[in-house]
Design a protein that fits this description.
This protein is α/β, with parallel strands linked by helices and about 775 residues long. The chain is built from 30 helices and 22 strands. The structure holds adenosine-5'-triphosphate and magnesium ion (MG). Its EC number is 5.6.2.4.
Length: about 775
């Protein structure tokens, strides 16, 4: 069958049937970039006879990778023998499983998650460097190391550039952290990008092997690549030069995680012989939604500039909604979903998505939907794999898989309680360090270690024997992973301990059941010789991994967005970041309030404000049929309500495309309460009403400093934002460290009264003070 590109328009076709040489598809949201990319893969295979094993396609989330694989599979009508389609991280794991020994790791390495990383850094700061954890929060140190890694800055180079006290501590921690990872035969998440680059740079024959194999590289969402990913691509593509990337500079939203928008803006410079294809037709959204999106993004200065038009009808207007507070907002959204479904029998819950800027907002939304009995799915938030009991069980499994996984050992050494105290663990760690053996091996000898006595002297060797038994079982043929896990959680005492916890323990036991079901799934796929899994095995080379290692590798890679299952009927909720690349008929963007979206800290830097606007653009362009922009007049932060003004982003949405609605609760209120849109004039007086005149402006109003109300002005971002609240420890560039005593004002005007350790109390305007959080780590 000749391959058919007739489902593409001429420009899309031109890109999809591009054969050799570098090419960039630069185009706005919904213009078919991802469709072009998958079409080109099938065209290469079906029309040009390219060996599927020579194709490497990369994207950013497992969800997107899964969809891509599915699309290619259905277009080709057969399996993707040998083709690699995955995230940068999963491809990094594959490369390392095969070639890690060249860097000094064994192929059964562990991938550390954020908790493991923080625990490790904590130990280095406290035990090795003997520094104060309060002054040097592990999470802050870790994010500095992570940023350095994503820039491909190694420990030595980092140390050379360190020029303040904080950076010097980071410089002390960084090499120790790397050494500890290596001793534990582990990589952290960033290493999955950095170590393959190191491998390719230092082993020319390995580089050549990969270059020879992967003649065709394709990258979706190219605008979000960071330095490490960029260098990885440059190395891999250097020989064949068949680098095909698609992206949209207007959707670059990961600057805060090191993504460099210049990677897309400079593509032509990097590859002077490159072709650029622009797609200008949007196939996703109604004309009203697209018009609004175009207008919103036109406020940004730093962009290439693109046209995006549609043949679609105008469609419904965009609805701006004014709610009283966050629970009113949630109730309104839930009722609106019900009303829409009552109107149109073809709709189901999965056609609706609720987006928000910060994870913290999900809770109120969840409660609102739960009250209405409406099934929903939170993508992100407290992820399944981050729950305590799940992590405990996984730590046991990791230790079974890899006897040198010291972090896993430390996590479960006394979980459930078996009478092993901190002192014994410290002694054990000293013994292990002296002999340069893993903690688990040291535990076997605990009976004869000085300073370990009584219960611990008995319990530690028992723990070691328990793990040893399951490690032996795991290597036996015919032992089923789910069975092994079930027995392990029983015999370790985890299950009994959870049962003893009462009702809460029940939910946790259900989570363990879910985990076991996940293990069973991997086991089943292995027995059925699931082709995709077989391919993974094949790609892993001689070191054919056990089900256990496969499962652990899978768990380490599951990102937030993977929980989004398009077939289950439920309303989806997620952060705007997680929504990238997805589309839904009905989209609600909630919390459209100044200081929340855009986040208040974005006002510090024009670039940050532009990134927030791009995030808004991403949100708007997820909508196919209908967009709702909801804001609340006040919102709870910690124990208090704060008055909120509508987001300035709303002003960039043209009025002739919108209609305004108020929730019943707003309508009930006296007319003095209902503020018409875009009349900010009464904002100050509202604020005065709340705070009482002058006292809102710092200093004047003395609150009880001991009242730790958790009052929160800034919002914790999904990943990185420090939250500023009373009692928080912060660092100021000139005044040094201090404790926040009082927060006043709102929006651009938030002021913080801070008791600095060195210079005493000062009041600073947060927007200009460039504060860094020191408290965020626990
Ligand atoms: N030529 C076409 N004819 C009909 N529908 C199309 C065409 N091209 C793309 N589409 C549809 O338009 C929608 C958007 O396409 P796609 O997701 O590939 O866009 P995108 O550019 O990757 O968007 P984003 O920037 O949000 O990732 C999809 O539902 C896709 O199937
Ligand atoms: Mg896309």
């Amino acid at each position: 069958m000749a391959f058919d590109l007739s489902h593409l328009n001429p420009e899309q076709n031109e890109a999809a049937s591009h054969f050799e040489g570098p090419l960039l598809v630069l185009a706005g949201a919904g213009s078919g970039k991802t469709r072009v990319l998958t079409s080109r893969i099938t065209w290469l295979v079906d029309e040009m006879g390219v060996d599927p094993a020579g194709i490497l396609a990369l994207t950013f989330t497992n969800k997107a990778a899964g969809e891509m694989r599915e699309r290619v599979r259905s277009m080709l009508g057969r399996e993707l023998a040998g083709m690699w389609i995955g995230t940068f991280h999963s491809v990094g794991v594959r490369i390392l499983r095969r070639d890690a020994p060249k860097l000094g790791w064994s192929p059964s390495f562990t991938v550390y998650d954020a908790d493991d990383q923080d625990a490790l850094i904590k130990r280095i700061i406290r035990d090795q460097l003997k520094l104060d954890l309060k002054k040097w929060p592990p999470r802050a140190i870790h994010s500095a190391i992570s940023a350095a890694k994503n820039e491909l800055t190694g420990p030595q180079e980092y140390a050379e550039g360190a020029n303040d006290a904080f950076e010097r501590v980071v410089a002390d921690v960084y090499p120790r952290y790397q050494q500890a990872l290596k001793d534990a035969n582990a990589f952290d998440f960033d290493d999955l990008l950095v170590k393959p680059v190191e491998l390719l740079r230092t082993h020319p024959h390995v580089l050549r092997r990969y270059q020879d194999r992967f003649r065709f590289l394709l990258v979706d969402e190219y605008q979000d690549t960071n330095r490490a990913q960029y260098v990885f691509l440059q190395l891999m593509a250097a020989e064949a030069r068949n680098l095909f990337v698609v992206g949209d500079d207007d959707q670059s939203i990961y600057g805060w995680r090191g993504a460099d928008i210049r990677n897309i803006l400079d593509f032509e410079k990097d590859f002077p012989d490159s072709r650029i294809v622009r797609l200008e037709q949007n196939y996703r959204s109604s004309a009203n939604i697209l018009d609004a999106a175009n207008r919103v993004i036109s406020h940004n200065v730093n962009r290439k500039g693109k046209t995006l038009r549609t043949d679609a009808a105008a469609g419904e207007r965009i609805t701006l909604v004014e709610a009283a507070d966050e629970s009113d907002e949630a109730r309104w959204v839930a009722e609106e979903i019900q009303a829409r479904m009552a109107d149109d029998a073809r709709l189901s819950l999965r056609h609706f998505v609720i987006l928000y800027r910060t994870n913290a907002q999900s809770r109120a939304m969840e409660e609102g939907l739960r009250r209405e009995g409406m099934p929903y799915r939170v993508i992100g938030g407290t992820r399944f794999y981050e729950r305590r009991e799940v992590k405990d069980a996984l730590a046991y499994l990791r230790l079974v898989s890899n006897a040198s996984a010291d972090e896993a050992f430390l996590r479960i050494v006394n979980v459930p309680r078996r009478g092993i105290g901190d002192a014994s663990v410290t002694r054990l760690a000293e013994h292990a360090a002296a002999r340069r053996i893993p903690l688990l091996a040291a535990a076997a000898e605990a009976g004869s270690v000085d300073g370990i006595r009584g219960v611990a002297a008995k319990a530690l060797p028992e723990l070691s024997a328990l793990i040893g038994k399951y490690a032996a079982l795991a290597s036996l043929e015919g032992v089923e992973l789910d069975q092994l896990l079930r027995e392990l959680v029983l015999e370790s005492g985890l299950v009994e301990a959870l049962k003893a916890e009462g009702p809460e323990g029940k939910d946790r036991l259900a989570n363990l059941d879910e985990l076991i079901a996940g293990a069973a799934e991997i086991q089943r796929r292995l027995v059925d010789e699931d082709p995709e899994l077989m391919m993974e095995l094949e790609d892993a080379g001689e070191t054919s991994p056990r089900p256990l290692d496969l499962f652990l590798g899978h768990v380490a890679l599951v990102a937030d967005v993977d929980q989004h299952d398009p077939t289950a009927d439920a309303v989806s909720m997620m952060t705007l970041h997680n929504a990238k690349g997805l589309e839904f008929p009905f989209v609600f963007i909630s919390g459209m309030e100044d200081g929340l979206f855009p986040l208040i800290r974005a006002y510090d830097e024009p670039e940050d404000l532009e990134e927030e606007r791009r995030l808004f653009y991403v949100g708007v362009t997820r909508a196919e049929r209908k967009l709702y922009l909801v804001h609340a007049k006040r919102r709870r932060r910690g124990a208090q309500y704060m008055d909120s003004a509508p987001s300035p982003f709303l002003e960039s949405v043209p009025e002739d495309l919108t209609e305004t609605r108020k929730t019943p609760r707003i309508l009930e209120r006296s007319s003095s309460w209902s503020q018409p849109w875009k009349q900010g004039g009464s904002y100050t007086s509202r604020r005065e009403r709340l705070f009482g005149g002058d006292s809102a402006w710092g200093g004047g109003k003395k609150k009880d400093d001991g009242d730790d109300s958790g009052y929160q002005v800034d919002y914790a971002d999904s990943q990185d934002a420090p939250s500023l609240r009373k009692g928080a420890r912060v660092r100021h560039p000139t005044f040094g460290s201090g404790t926040v005593k009082e927060l006043t004002g709102y929006g651009n005007d938030v002021k913080a009264a801070i008791e600095f350790d060195s210079v005493g109390r000062k009041t600073v305007v947060v927007r200009y003070a460039n504060l860094e959080s020191e408290t965020d780590w626990d």
